[in-house]
Amino acid sequence: MRALLAEYARYHDPVLAPEGEAMYSVLKASFRATGFEVVSPEEGDFASEIRRLAPVCDIGLVIAPDHLLPGFTRTLEETTHNIGCGSMSAAVCANKRLTGRTLAAHGIAVPDEVETGLRVIKPVSGCGSQGVVLSDRKALDGEISQKYIEGEHLSVSLVGSRVVGNVCEYYTGKTPLLLAINRQYIELTPDGKFRYQGGETPVDHDRKDEIVKTAISVVNVLGCQGYTGVDVVVADKVYVVDVNPRITTSIVGIAACIEGEIAEILVSASRGGGPEAVKANRRVRYDHAGRVRPV
After folding, report:
1. Alpha-carbon distance 160 to 101, whole Å?
2. I want to staple 263 with a disulfide (CB 3.0 to 4.6 A). Which of 30, 194, 218, 226 is the partner?
3. What is the band of 36 on the pLDDT scale with cuts at 50, 70, 90?
4. Measured between alpha carbons, how far is 45 from 295 in angstroms, rounded to an integer?
5. How far apart are CA 171 and CA 162, in angstroms?
6. In Å, how far from its chain's centre is CA 115?
7. DSSP letters of the chain?
């Protein structure tokens, strides 16, 4: 069996390349341990590389910045079995304004859009903390400004079962699988920029049920499948501040903690299956470049 792991940043985004390499390395090792031969795009046009490699692969997974993910995923879907989020849901998640309004319409707490005062300003289509600032300036074209929520920064890593694509063959209605709640370490620089510094996983929390329920609702509302990271701020409510319908850096910590192979979980979920729960045997800290150490 052959798996296509199409990670964009390693050759095409120097800023994100360390995170991309860390995620890719963890997944490559897991797929090989599960019995897959792994092939990947290298230098050159990324979409063309996907078109070249996908037809000779049994499964495929794209990891790319949110605004690029839908197009590359659509290219993959045309020629092999996608084990990540579908391109349509990825396109919705890539638009932060559309995502927020969709979630709010379904009763999920998100920061209000506001135009005055100190607030979080970020690109409508962005990736992680890139371009996210805390400021009272006017939002520019292509940006969204939201109320700043003071609270605890966490992410929830889930694996959604098959929702779209091959529906008749694979849809089972299986509840999204919780991999872990992760603590996020976010630095706020003196000039108001947010910097992601890594995290800790798995994290127990006295509001775990509320946090997980919110994240599962997000995945169900947006139709995400495969690995999804839901970023939340826990305050008076559990506020959803970002949805990443793709592998996130948390995977390097999660894979180091759970029993079994993450690759097997992803492939099984893409066909409507997978375990009912995962078991972690330790807790780790990881940085933004994917370096892991025990806690």
Report:
1. 22
2. 30
3. very high
4. 40
5. 5
6. 28
7. -EEEEEESHHHH-TTTHHHHHHHHHHHHHHHHHTT-EEE---SS-HHHHHHHHGGG-SEEEEE--TTTHHHHHHHHHTTSEE-S--HHHHHHHH-HHHHHHHHHHTT---PPB-SSSSEEEEESS--TTTT-EEESSPPPTTEEEEEPPPSEEEEEEEEE---SSSHHHH---PPPEEEEEEEEEEEE-TTSBEEEEEEEES---TTHHHHHHHHHHHHHHHT--EEEEEEEEESSSEEEEEEE-S--THHHHHHHHBSS-HHHHHHHHTTT---S---B---EEE-TT--EEE-
- Tokens 């992803």, located at residue: 266
The residues near 283 (Cβ < 8 Å, ≥ 6 apart) are 200, 201, 202, 203, 257, 294, 295
Our count of domains for the chain comes to: 1
Question: Whole domain around residue 228: which residue ranges?
Answer: 2-294
Q: Which amino acid is at 186?
A: I
pLDDT above 70 (res 16) = yes
Task: State the Cα–Cα distance between residues 9 and 22, nearest whole angstrom.
Answer: 11
Hunting for tokens 């929830």 — which residue is that?
A: 156
The angle at the Cα of 113, spanning 111 to 116, to the nearest 5 degrees, equals 115
User: Each residue of 245-263: pLDDT tens digit?
Assistant: 999 999 999 999 999 999 9
Give the pLDDT band of residue 162 (cuts 50, 70, 90).
low
The CATH number given to whatever domain includes residue 107 is 3.30.470.20
